[in-house]
Amino acid sequence: MTEPRWLSESEQEVWRAYQTATKLVGESLDRQLQRDSGMPTTYYEILVALSEATGRELRMSELAEFTKSSRSRLSHAIARLEENGWVTRRSCPTDKRGAFASLTEDGMGVVRAAAPGHVNEVRTVLFDGLSTDQVKQLGEISAAIVAQASKGCPSDPCDE
Amino acid sequence: MTEPRWLSESEQEVWRAYQTATKLVGESLDRQLQRDSGMPTTYYEILVALSEATGRELRMSELAEFTKSSRSRLSHAIARLEENGWVTRRSCPTDKRGAFASLTEDGMGVVRAAAPGHVNEVRTVLFDGLSTDQVKQLGEISAAIVAQASKGCPSDPCDE
């Protein structure tokens, strides 16, 4: 390895503030969803992705990409959501590219019931503390991070 | 509950970009640490916090706060780090406020060996994609989120 590219003192401060901020936001949202809707954030993200898809159905590989989950983690979550009656799975006999997950009416009801509290929490922990300029900057910074982080990624991030 | 405070379309975009960006950064760092140092990010954060403490030792409650971990998750991690010989635990007979964790020489060696690759990854996925202005903005935004998110928090976030 070449000479390490250490962070300057001010970069270290930014990095620590970023770490604390993202942890606090994640924890607040986890806590709110668990308390008010009895589910972890990953489950909610899966349900929302399905609720927004055409026919409320997605290929498992698409769902893994939307939710940035590994295949094994996603399969586990989908199995639990199926037990709850919120999602159904079907495999397509003419398409070897795999199984589909669909949102049930019950699942859609769960999304509708959970959304107001979740969005309110997103506002409270994130947007309420930022100026209009900062919200815009956060969007641009996030897009730049996504572009940068995606550079080194394989085209299909889903591990079997 | 009062009328839900829905996000505008542009706020939704910012929120999604934020979610994707923070997930990608987290995953890149997890992957790098697991690949090059054989440990999850939480373990690395614990070792770093101890390495920077006076006498390379911290009260478990301090460590929980530094790493924003629940007590149970932290205890589990410390037990594993102790098995590896990187950390030792001791309880203080005159102080009922609990146990201390110390970094061993081996543990310090692990931090020293892991740090260059980790810092390099932080640069690659985060700082390299941002302008100097954006780094400054990210610091300010993160500080504002921390201030906002901390408003509703209890003074001691550690659950037993």
UniProtKB/TrEMBL annotation, chains A, B:
InterPro entries: ArsR-like_HTH (IPR011991), HTH_MarR-typ (IPR000835), MarR/SlyA-like (IPR039422), WH-like_DNA-bd_sf (IPR036388), WH_DNA-bd_sf (IPR036390). Gene3D superfamilies: Winged helix-like DNA-binding domain superfamily/Winged helix DNA-binding domain. Residues 11-147 form the HTH marR-type domain. GO terms for molecular function: DNA binding; DNA-binding transcription factor activity. PROSITE patterns: HTH_MARR_2 (PS50995). It holds the Pfam family MarR_2. CDD domains: HTH_ARSR. One of its GO terms (biological process) is response to stress. Keywords: DNA-binding. The keyword Nucleotide-binding does not apply. The keyword DNA-binding applies. PANTHER family: MARR FAMILY REGULATORY PROTEIN, TRANSCRIPTIONAL REGULATOR, MARR FAMILY. This is DNA-binding MarR family transcriptional regulator.
